[in-house]
Structures are given as C-alpha cells and as structure tokens.
Known about the structure:
Blueprint: E1 3-9, E2 14-16, H1 26-36, E3 40-44, H2 45-50, E4 60-64, E5 73-75, H3 78-83, E6 89-91, H4 95-101, E7 107-112, E8 123-124, E9 133-135, E10 139-140, E11 148-154
Parallel strand pairs: 1-6, 1-7, 3-4, 3-6, 4-5
Antiparallel strand pairs: 2-8, 7-11, 9-11, 10-11
Amino acid sequence: MSFGIIAAVSREGIIGLDGGIPWHYSSDLKRFKRVTMGSTLIMGRLTWESLPRKPLPGRRNIVISSQDIEGVECFRSIEAALAAVSGDVWFIGGARIFAEAMRYADVIDLAFVPDSIRASGAVFFPDIDASVWEAGARESDPEDPRLVRCIYRKKKGISDE
Ligand SMILES: NC(=O)c1ccc[n+]([C@@H]2O[C@H](COP(=O)([O-])OP(=O)(O)OC[C@H]3O[C@@H](n4cnc5c(N)ncnc54)[C@H](OP(=O)(O)O)[C@@H]3O)[C@@H](O)[C@H]2O)c1
C-alpha cells in the first residue's frame, strides 16, 4: 500500500483556475492515467466537479466533501477515506487535499508545465517542505519535452505523525 500525490503545476506553482486546469498536455494526461490505473483516487469536491461528473474508469474514485454527491463514493475527511481503502492511493487534488495529504504521502509526482499563469483567484500547489521531501532529478517527459517531471520522496525518519 503506497500513498502518493500527483499534480501538474505552472511556472508560478498554480494548479487550477476558474474551476479547471488552464492548460492541456495530452502526454501528461496519458501518464496520469498510466500511473494511477488500478489504484484509489482521492480528490476534493471541486476537483470532482471539474471532471466530466463520472468516476475516472479503472480506479476507485473517492471525493472528500461535507455533503454526499450522487454517483461517487464520498467521505467527510481524508482520514475516514483512508480507513476504508486498501491498495495504492493517489491524492489528485485540489490544494487543500494536497496540503493535508503531505503527511500521508511517501511520494509527490509533479509535472512542471511551461505555462505562465497570471490571474487572481488561481489555486496553488502547497509549499514542499525541503526538510521533509527529497527532490529527485528533473527529467523531461519522453513524449513531450516541454514538460519536466520531478519525483519527491519523503526523507527517511519522517513519519506521518
Ligand atoms: N493541476 C493539477 O494537477 C490539478 C489537480 C486537481 C485539481 N486541479 C484544479 O484545482 C482546482 C480545485 O482545487 P481546490 O483546491 O479549489 O478544491 P478541491 O480541493 O478540489 O475541493 C475543495 C472542497 O473539497 C472538500 N475538501 C477538500 N479537502 C477537504 C478536507 N481535508 N476535509 C474535508 N473536506 C475537504 C470541501 O468540500 P465541501 O465544500 O463539499 O465540504 C472543499 O470545499 C480546480 O481548478 C481543478 O481543476 C488541478
């Protein structure tokens, strides 16, 4: 059982704008699908609402929300969701989910897109604490060199409590 965070960020560290993602890179979407297939996805309500309102196929979709939402499994908190799952888990956003998931995750799979987003109301990826996370090598996406990927791993001796 492993817990990971997966996201794509702009040059400014932005993950979302106006309820969506203000870029489109098909190689990143393909990789997201490949990496997360077969696992459990945990997302916030607004991220769920940014999808086509049906669960992403081949994965257990869980939404964290104070309300029940028709058509998808919901929990009131990440903790409650984690108590009900087995196997690999990917936290897929948004910002509050990412921030809270930092304590549970062992890995952060981050794609850096070349876009520069300057807009008020944008949603940011939370700070990555360098005392907790070790950054791996930055590598270009083999299918689309405009994208750079970095895997962060939790340093040894850092527990989730
Ligand atoms: N670039 C990327 O990789 C990426 C990935 C995912 C999403 N996004 C973008 O990010 C934006 C959405 O992110 P967001 O941060 O605004 O919203 P979000 O985290 O997706 O959803 C926020 C809502 O989720 C629930 N929630 C979240 N964390 C919770 C917690 N710890 N405990 C209880 N409830 C919790 C609450 O729902 P209730 O109000 O119902 O209680 C909260 O209002 C969109 O623009 C989306 O497209 C980007």
